[in-house]
Amino acid sequence: MLIREATADDWSAIWPFFHAIVAAGETFTYPLDLGEEQGREWWLLSSPNRTVVAVDEAGAVLGTAKMNSNQMGNGSHIASASYMVDPAHSGKGVGRALCAYTVGWARAAGFRGMQFNAVVETNAPAVHLYRSLGFEVLGTLPEGFRHPTHGYVGLHIMHRAL
Fold first, then answer.
1. What confidence tens digit (pLDDT) does each residue in 60-84 have?
2. Global pTM?
3. What total number of domains does the chain contain?
4. Domain residue limits at 29
């Protein structure tokens, strides 16, 4: 697996799984009916932020991550990131590789920490992965997320120092 900078041409491979994940409404706080153009604008970030893709040896996109400053101004020393893995490739280490990559990027860019603002508490694979990479739950917003099958569930704020 290779992780490289995403290009505009990658969007056609990202959009199908991006759309399916968002429309399922289980893990992201995006509108369920998010359109393709708005999704592209929100996901494909420009410098100094970054968006990357994980690709296999044939060049097929397996997953993607976007990384950025969590806040502006005096809060810009804390990074954040978001991840999407094509469900056809889940459980193969793509998410772990992308998460480790973003932590390395944030460290190299001089950020002092990394924060995830809204990790859905029922997204057990993500919570487990982030904890295994040194993140901890700082707090949980009770009923901060309306899950389509579990109802109102908490949103974790997770952090790790860099």
1. 999 999 999 999 999 999 999 999 9
2. 0.94
3. 1
4. 2-161
